[in-house]
Design brief:
The chain is about 10% helix and about 40% strand. It contains two helices and eight strands; from the N terminus they run ααββββββββ. It has a five-stranded mixed barrel. The protein has a three-stranded antiparallel beta sheet with strand order 2-1-3. A hairpin with a 2-residue loop joins β7 and β8. The structure holds zinc ion.
């Protein structure tokens, strides 16, 4: 059995995944009201417009929450455990999840980095 890729599970997020592979953090924003989306969507949750586009983000933000993962969710992640995941409030307004450098705390300023694991581009936040 193969594990579905992020793009297979969520085609709306393909631009985000493509960005990670190119070393760019992208956020989806509404062209009608400029609301930045934390998750890839098909319509703006604020105004309902289907006109959403992707923008390059600075990669800078603040740690909102973090947790340590000790049990891999899939076999592909076993080599990484234990690892830390963070929710980061980007300066652009979106909240995104990524891996994290050790030693981060809630409220720390961070910046995005990118790495590849099991042929999959992933996001990691390090002290900014
Ligand atoms: Zn909108």
């Amino acid at each position: 059995m193969t594990t579905p890729t992020i793009s297979a599970r969520s085609p709306a997020a393909q631009a985000f995944v493509d960005g990670l592979a190119r070393g760019v953090l992208r956020v989806q924003a509404c062209e009608a009201c400029s609301t930045v989306q934390s998750l890839a969507r098909h319509a703006c949750p604020r105004c309902g417009s289907p006109r959403l586009s992707w923008r390059n983000a600075s990669g800078l933000g603040t740690v909102f929450a973090l947790t340590q993962v000790r049990r891999a969710p899939t076999p592909e992640f076993r080599a990484l455990v234990p690892y830390t995941l963070v929710l980061v409030d980007l300066d652009e307004g979106a909240r995104v999840m990524g891996h994290a450098a050790e030693g981060l705390s809630i409220g720390d300023r961070v910046r995005a980095e990118f790495f590849e694991h099991d042929a999959r581009p992933l996001l990691r936040f390090v002290p900014g």
